[in-house]
Design brief:
The protein has 30 helices and 31 strands. The protein is an alpha+beta fold. Strands 22, 23, 24, 25, 26 and 27 form a 6-stranded mixed sheet that branches. The protein has a 4-stranded parallel sheet with strand order 2-1-20-21, sandwiched between helices. Strands 6-5-7-15 form a 4-stranded antiparallel sheet. Helix 25 runs antiparallel to helix 26.
């Protein structure tokens, strides 16, 4: 089928492009062109109408090798897409279309990450239910994406808010809740030690006596509530009272990753405070080693690999037990990665939250205590209490990044076992309870933060690593060197390098019972509770003792109830003492429920927090593989076909995952964690969710600010050229400043794809975005430059169609040798570029071929058919139209991608370099198949070689035909 030229005219402009594009989109949808079959289940066979249409997928598609392509799915924003959003979607679409032409069964779909704070906030502001807002936004975004002509299998589309999706999200939570991490277990593939196991296996250990309870009582002697208290210390999803990031202005708790470096909420910029609250957590720390070690098997950008490693923060060191100079406390445990510097430890620091702070706090100040150590309080207890309150108002990021060092002396001292000195113990907020033991030995001479603290409080320093000559004595030395000032009657490590010194000191202390080798992590357990309405409810109820109880599978999904007010209770942004009150807690008819959970009908109370918006994106890679399965999370056959491990992806997962680098830690780490648990429990065959990761760049554009620094709409800015030639920019009569930044709503410089569709057509927009630069790099947006992509497509069109009559202009006869040479060089180059996602250079090569054909006055079918196929991934609507005009009655989608003919790739000549005494003296253009004898003769006769020899004889000639001749003259 073709578009009727009498209705559209014959010039390829925006109007004709729109007609062509909408026509082919209808054909694809009606024919199920992009329907991708599964090995089994409801998508196991192509729909009947798919097989009846020549524009449907081939009947043998399910027998082909699979390729699973994923995009980081979008949040359905109210403003829809701007031109920066489709960049990654277009990249994956181009690659997927290319791989279909290479003969693969490509699964590619796009869904919506539909729970989230924006819809919640909009509901609070307007009273409109978040589902109404979300569904309307999804409909708008779906239509915007449809106009792009993306080759998605729409049957696999879903939203995380769909009841069926919520059901399986809650089911996965229960799998995690009903599991524990057994460090002695082996993973199903036998690759690692330490894996999730059903909680029943742990209960069996307690019941049989193989594992003792914490207080030594028999398991049978514990009440159900006591048993659950024990299990909570092992479950991979657990409730605990722990330090959290409390944001009164939002009325919710935030994960560390949702707090900015300035101590503000990522959404809304509200102050965030540290509070101890009872919340749900995920024990992601149990998987720290596997999350680091398995990265090596993934094809991920180095920056993302490094970001995950740094976030997990694995370090190897020692736990040191330092004696306390007091009668009632024996020692304090500190973690250090540098036990070799013990001789330089001149004080200790505890986190304000450390459990030993109270016992180490003296009752009164000693007269010798400096005023700067006392915090302007009458007693140590008063000073430390005030300091703890101040520290609670700061985030971890605030505490770690501040150069101003504060602290309070506890009044107690520890004994440095290396020097025998009594060293003071401080409480200071630059030490975090969440890392190590929450206590450090401070070595000012070798640590910048310790140095700043020591300078502030007048504490001494001892250098234990030799600095280089010229090092500033009034600064710490944090580099490497030999040990100095590090000897006593029992041990001498002076002159040793750091690694050797570490081992010696650790062994020496271990012999005294004062040290143990240890590995620590910066990673904290994942805070999993949110005090919002618009999120997945927890499938948990509490009994009269407050014991959490999992709901049975048949009660899923737990759905959100209707409420009169969607807002959690919010407070003044600086009200650090406030407590969470979620919206769900105000619906008593929902929170209090009568259920029979095996003990007869009883009253239970539902969990009133909801899951974070990361929950759905932590497993959605599995849903695409089996989107309608109501009985299982995913059929094992389908999961293995799409995500199962193979030689090209030893850990399995999606073959290609494309999205922004802003998700380097959050989403990617959480998804890997959930995937590994499901793998350990035998639900899936893959141990990683995403094998290859590509981060697309940002599209940037000019933005404009007024005299207040406030952004003004870029579309309303007027550009003027002053008399001196300088460009100035004006908005409503006021001169504004121009800057460059990421395109988006906040900078008021958005350009909507709808504008591009109307002005140029979707294919032109596609070609422009893919030609702007490498997929991974940022690129500047310039609407005026889009016309270049349009002109390219117009030149392609004119190779097929007479713009005046609409008649075919495809040339007949034989293709000339020069055109065949250009064609096959382009084919070879485009294949290479497409394999490596170099879409911009592939388009450049297609332009070369098009320009050549245009200069020749036209092209034959032998040139135009491969040109059309190669154009297909970039401009699929136009390519389908041209394919049909070539007489084909089936879709271009599954046409075989052309292969270069080596006979047309042979160069007519190659350049041979002639060297005399190792220096280049001549260059000869010779035939590629020239013989060594003939090449030697040409080289010796070349004027420049004769001149360089200067009459000297030739001792030796080395020939590497056809590219090198090296002449060695007589001495």
């Amino acid at each position: 089928m073709t578009t009727n030229p009498e209705e559209t005219g014959f010039r390829y402009d925006a109007a004709l492009a729109e007609e062509i594009e909408k026509s082919w989109q209808r054909t694809w949808e009606e024919s199920g062109t992009f329907h991708t079959p599964n090995p089994t289940g409801d998508l196991g066979e192509l729909d009947s109408q798919d097989g009846q249409s020549t524009y449907g997928p081939p009947s043998d598609l399910s027998e082909r090798e699979s390729l699973y392509i994923m995009d980081m799915f979008p949040y359905p924003s109210g403003v829809g897409l701007h031109v920066g959003h489709p960049l990654g979607y277009l990249g994956t679409d181009v690659y997927g279309r290319y791989q279909r032409m290479r003969g693969l069964n490509v699964m590619h779909a796009l869904s919506y990450d539909a729970f989230g704070l924006p819809a919640d906030l909009y509901a609070v502001q307007t009273g409109q239910h978040p589902r109404i807002t979300t569904d309307a936004n999804i409909a708008n975004m779906t239509e915007q994406l449809r106009r792009l002509g993306l080759a998605h299998d729409v049957r696999r589309r879903f939203a995380t808010t769909d009841d069926e999706f919520v059901k399986w999200t809650q089911w996965i939570f229960l799998q995690i809740f009903n599991s524990w991490y057994d460090p002695e277990a082996t993973t199903p593939d036998g690759e690692a030690k330490g894996a999730a196991r059903p909680i029943e296996t742990l209960i069996d250990q307690f019941a049989s006596g193989a594992r003792s309870t914490p207080d030594g009582r028999a398991w049978s002697d514990l009440s159900p509530a006591e048993r659950e208290d024990v299990l909570q210390d092992f479950r991979l999803a657990y409730v605990s009272e722990s330090p959290v990031n409390w944001c009164p202005g939002l009325g919710t708790v935030l994960a560390n990753e949702e707090v900015t470096a300035d101590g503000l909420s990522e959404r809304g910029n509200f102050p965030v405070f540290t509070r101890r609250l009872r919340q749900w957590n995920m024990r992601i720390t149990a998987y720290a080693d596997r999350l680091i070690d398995d990265l090596d098997a993934l094809d991920w950008p180095h920056a993302i690999h490094a970001a995950q490693v740094n976030w997990i923060g694995r370090s190897k060191g020692a736990l040191l037990r330092l004696p306390i100079v007091a009668d009632d406390v024996s020692d304090i445990e500190v973690y250090t990665t540098r036990p070799d510097t013990l001789f330089g430890a001149t004080y200790l620091v505890l986190s304000p939250e450390h459990p030993q702070v109270a016992s180490l706090t003296a009752s009164t100040w000693d007269e010798s205590t400096p005023e700067s150590w006392r915090g302007a309080q009458a007693t140590p207890a008063e000073a430390i209490a005030a300091y703890q309150r101040a520290a609670a108002a700061k985030t971890d990021a605030d505490r770690q990044q501040s150069r101003e060092k504060t602290g309070i002396f506890t009044g107690s001292y520890a004994l440095n076992p290396a020097t025998g000195d009594e060293v003071p113990i401080f409480v200071a907020d630059y030490v975090l309870m969440g890392y190590g033991t929450g206590a450090i030995m401070a070595v000012p001479a070798e640590d910048a933060r310790d140095w700043d603290f020591a300078k502030t409080f007048g504490l001494p320093y001892i250098r234990t690593v030799q600095p280089p000559a010229g090092h500033d004595e009034d600064a710490p030395f944090t580099g490497t060197g030999v040990m100095i000032n590090s000897a006593n009657a029992e041990i001498d490590i002076n002159g040793l390098q750091i690694d050797g010194a570490k081992a010696r000191v650790t062994d020496w202390l271990a012999g005294k019972g004062l040290a143990t080798e240890s590995t620590q992590y910066r990673l904290r357990d994942w805070l999993f509770s949110r005090q919002r309405y618009w999120g997945e409810p927890f499938p948990i109820v509490y009994d009269e003792n407050g014991t959490p109880i999992a709901l049975p599978d048949e009660m899923l999904p737990v759905q959100l109830p209707e409420v009169d007010d969607f807002a959690p209770r919010t407070y003044a942004p600086d009200d650090a003492d406030s407590r969470p009150e979620p919206a769900l807690s105000r619906n008593q008819d929902w929170t209090s429920v009568e259920l029979d959970l095996g003990e007869g009908l009883k009253t239970y109370h539902r969990e009133t927090n909801t899951m974070p918006n990361w929950a759905g994106s932590s497993w959605y890679q599995l849903r695409y593989a089996d989107p309608h399965n109501a009985e299982r999370l995913v059929d094992p056959v389908n999961e293995k076909y799409w995500l199962g491990p193979r030689a090209s992806k030893p850990r399995g997962g999606a073959d290609l995952y494309v999205g922004g680098q802003e998700h380097a830690v959050l989403h990617l780490l959480y998804a890997r964690f959930w995937h590994k648990i499901l793998f350990d429990l035998g639900h899936i065959s893959s141990s990683e969710p995403f094998h290859r990761l590509v981060n697309q760049g940002y599209i940037q554009a000019y933005a404009y600010t007024d005299s207040r620094g406030v952004y003004v709409p870029a579309a309303e800015v007027e550009e003027r050229t002053e008399s001196n030639g300088e460009l100035t920019f004006w908005h409503n009569g006021e001169q504004v400043n121009r800057e460059y930044g990421k395109i988006g709503k906040s900078l008021k410089n958005s350009v909507m794809p709808d504008e591009m569709y109307d002005a140029f057509g979707a294919d032109t927009f596609r070609v422009y975005e893919m030609s702007m630069g490498p997929l991974e790099q940022d690129r500047p947006w310039d609407t005026r430059a889009v016309v270049g992509a349009q002109r390219f497509l117009q030149r392609v069109w004119r190779l097929f169609v007479d713009e005046t009559t609409g008649e075919s202009v495809i040339a007949g006869g034989e293709t000339d040798a020069e055109s065949l040479k250009v064609l096959h060089q382009v084919i070879e180059g485009v294949r290479e570029d497409m394999d490596h996602l170099r879409f911009n250079t592939a388009i450049s090569k297609l332009i070369v071929l098009t320009n050549h054909a245009t200069k020749q006055g036209g092209a034959t079918r032998e040139v135009l058919e491969p040109l059309t196929i190669m154009l297909g991934p970039f401009a699929p609507h136009l390519a389908e139209e041209l394919w049909s005009r070539l007489g084909h009655e089936s879709t271009l989608t599954y046409a075989s991608f052309p292969e270069a003919d080596p006979n047309h790739l042979v160069a007519e000549t190659v350049t041979c370099v002639v060297q005399v005494k190792g220096k280049v003296r001549a260059r000869l253009e010779v035939a590629p198949d020239i013989s060594a004898e003939e090449l030697e003769q040409l080289a010796l006769e070349s004027p420049n070689a004769v001149k360089a020899l200067g009459g000297a004889g030739v001792r030796k000639v080395i020939v590497r035909a056809p590219k090198l001749v090296n002449i060695v003259p007589d001495a």
